[in-house]
Specification:
Blueprint (H helix, E strand, L loop, with lengths): L9 E5 L5 E5 L4 H13 L3 E5 L5 H12 L3 E4 L5 E4 L12 E2 L4 H14 L2 E5 L10 H9 L3 E5 L3 E7 L7 E3 L5 H12 L6 E5 L6 H8 L4 E6 L2 E6 L9 E3 L4 H13 L4 E8 L6 H8 L3 E10 L2 E9 L7 E2 L11 H10 L1 E6 L12 H11 L3 E5 L2 E7 L5 E4 L4 H11 L6 E4 L11 H7 L3 E5 L2
Parallel strand pairs: 2-15, 3-14, 6-7, 10-11, 18-19, 22-23
Antiparallel strand pairs: 1-23, 1-24, 3-5, 4-5, 7-9, 8-9, 11-13, 12-13, 15-17, 16-17, 19-21, 20-21
Helix pairs in contact: 1-2, 1-3, 1-6, 3-5, 4-5, 7-9, 7-11, 9-10, 9-11
The structure holds shikimate-3-phosphate.
The site of shikimate-3-phosphate (S3P) has 11 residues, from helix 1 and helix 5.
Keywords: Amino-acid biosynthesis, Aromatic amino acid biosynthesis, Cytoplasm, Transferase
Family: Belongs to the EPSP synthase family.
Function: Catalyzes the transfer of the enolpyruvyl moiety of phosphoenolpyruvate (PEP) to the 5-hydroxyl of shikimate-3-phosphate (S3P) to produce enolpyruvyl shikimate-3-phosphate and inorganic phosphate.
Length: 446
């Protein structure tokens, strides 16, 4: 992997030479969070290789330490975690989840069941994000959680003996599903079952299995049903984290847009709950090839090769949204360079991400000369094959910043992204990797 760069507040991204080469992407963010949490909860030693060393996962790591995990970082980039066997220590200070919704929501399931007392907070963005979606089901399980205005962080939690729940997710959220499954596993009694009407990422189910937990999974007409029995001991495991498909999406999109490009991204997680972006890109007419497919730590992994070619507009149906939710901002950028209209519906969840991503995408596209309509639950982008360029505000959201950097590599006048440091949330080496592939970038401090 390429080197991390110092904090950069702004980035100018220019059109230029084709992007060519073979690169890897940093580890999967969702899987890294879960590996750290399960390492904390497990009995014995957990070894995590290929973990994402970025701000979000550092929040989880710090919290795991505060809850009693002993964590060592090896020189060759592995984490060695000695777990607590489920006996969480009372943290001496507030648990700071930073910008990370996954940390706050998924750790909450464990904390509510096992920590004597804890307070969770986060940055300004996280403190505006909805927490009732986890507080409500956990409260039904017997948890004692107080929240600011009843629904926002900071959250104060008094650990309690929880009971199992049979719960149908009202929003398609892997974070909520995971919080409930973890709480159910650590509960005092009663089986916990979660039904998800729409499939969401299933890394929790896969990784719990790797930690020796029996997870019962059924595909029913009402959706996927996942059941766990309490009292099962997590056993420390060796986890190899695949490359993050959501980070790879930016490189793939750049290769699809910049004339003459051909890029291979190696070792990327290809779990079917995460590959909606690749399927959508195929429908837009891009040439995407998968190779070297294999299974690592319960997840399908492979190499993705993309070559530049013309794109056309497509419809994104609500049912496919969970499989590409984090890739919708960069898909909107691709749509701007496509010929024809791209419509996304059923994606209201975008409004409650790190920023309101529907508003941020629409504002950003307009600033670079693209026509876009905003809907409550999505957007319509009117692609004209080319894009003028301009300046865009990231709103402190890593995926908005990287999406518009990609736009700059193909827009006539390039794109200036204001608020670049947030890229460190999930992909600190992004600019360096783009440059390695041949992109022209120029950083500056505002
Ligand atoms: C995540 C689930 C998704 C996703 C987020 C990571 C996870 O959020 O957008 O980036 O690791 O479980 P929701 O659970 O809110 O859908």
């Amino acid at each position: 992997m390429t080197e991390k760069r110092p904090l950069e507040q702004g980035m100018r991204c220019f059109p230029g030479s084709p992007l060519r080469g073979t690169v890897a992407v940093p580890g999967d963010k969702s899987i890294t969070h879960r590996a750290i949490l399960f390492g904390l909860l497990a009995e014995g030693r957990t070894e995590v290789s290929g973990w994402l060393d970025a701000a979000d996962c550092r929040s989880s790591l710090q919290i795991a330490r505060m809850l009693g995990a002993e964590v060592a970082e090896t020189d060759d980039g592995r984490l060695i975690i000695h777990g607590t066997a489920g006996n969480l220590r009372e943290p001496e200070d507030v648990l700071d989840c930073g910008n990370s919704g996954t940390t706050m929501r998924v750790f909450l399931g464990a904390i509510a069941a096992r920590a004597p007392f804890a307070v969770l907070t986060g940055d300004g963005s996280l403190r505006r994000r909805p927490m009732r979606r986890v507080i409500d089901p956990l409260t039904d399980m017997g948890a004692a959680i107080s929240a600011r205005s009843g629904r926002f962080a900071p959250l104060a939690v008094q650990g309690r003996a929880l009971r199992g729940i049979d719960y149908t997710l009202p929003v398609a959220s892997a974070q909520v599903k995971s919080a409930i499954l973890v709480a159910g596993l650590l509960a005092h009694d009663g089986v916990t079952a979660v039904t998800e009407p729409e499939a969401t990422r299933d890394h929790t189910e896969n990784l719990l299995t790797a930690f020796g937990v029996h997870v019962k999974r059924a595909s029913l007409p009402a959706g996927n049903r996942i059941e766990v029995e309490p009292g099962q001991v997590l056993r420390g495991a060796a986890v190899a984290v695949p490359g993050d498909p959501s980070s790879a999406a930016f490189l793939i999109a750049a290769a699809a847009l910049v004339p003459g490009s051909a890029v291979t991204v190696t070792g990327v997680g290809l779990n079917a709950t995460r590959t909606g972006f690749l399927r959508a890109l195929g429908r837009m007419g891009a040439q995407v090839e998968l190779g070297n497919l294999r299974k690592v730590s319960g997840e399908v992994v492979g190499d993705i090769t993309v070559t530049h070619g013309p794109l056309t507009g497509i419809e994104i149906e609500p049912a496919e949204v969970p499989s590409l939710i984090d890739e919708l901002p960069v898909l909107a950028v691709l749509a701007a360079f496509a010929e024809g209209t791209t419509r996304v519906r059923g994606a209201a969840e975008l409004r409650v991400k790190e920023t309101d991503r529907i508003a941020a995408v629409a504002e950003g596209l307009r600033s670079i000369g693209v026509q876009v309509d905003e809907a409550e639950d999505g957007f319509t982008v009117y692609g004209r094959g080319t894009v003028d360029g301009g300046a865009v505000d990231s709103h402190g959201d890593h995926r908005i910043a990287m999406s518009f950097a990609v736009a700059g590599l193909a827009a006539r006048r390039g794109v200036t992204v204001h608020g670049w440091d947030c890229v460190n949330i999930s992909y600190p080496s992004f600019a360096a990797t783009l440059e390695q592939l041949g992109a022209s970038l120029q950083a500056w401090s505002e």
